[in-house]
Amino acid sequence: MKIKEWFTIKGIRSEIKNIHWLSKKELVYNSGVVLLFCFLFGVYFYASDAIIALILKALGMN
After folding, report:
1. Can you tell me the distance from the alpha carbon of 55 to that of 6, in angstroms, rounded to the nearest whole number?
2. 40-50, pLDDT tens digit by residue?
3. How far apart are the first and last CA of the chain?
4. 20: alpha, beta or left, given left = phi > 0 and alpha = psi -120 to 50?
5. Contact at 8 Å (CB) between 54 and 46?
């Protein structure tokens, strides 16, 4: 498909037909995965910060 044809109504309709919309089940699953990773990264960064703070405190740099 040429660029010029893509900007026509016919071209836009053909592109819309190629869109894959998620089902409710897929959307819930993907949202859960994102929330889980956000939680895990939050715990990881909190723990990393706490460990670094303990190390600095033990060295008397805090």
Report:
1. 59
2. 999 999 999 99
3. 63
4. beta
5. no
Q: What is the DSSP string of 5-61?
A: HHTSHHHHHHHHHT--PPPHHHHHHHHHHHHHHHHHHHHHHHHHHHHHHHHHHHTT-
Give the tens place of pLDDT for each residue, 9-55.
888 888 889 999 999 999 999 999 999 999 999 999 999 999 999 99
Q: Are 53 and 62 in contact (CB under 8 A)?
A: yes
Q: Indicate the pTM of the whole model.
A: 0.63
Half-sphere exposure of 35 (CA within 13 A, CB side): 6
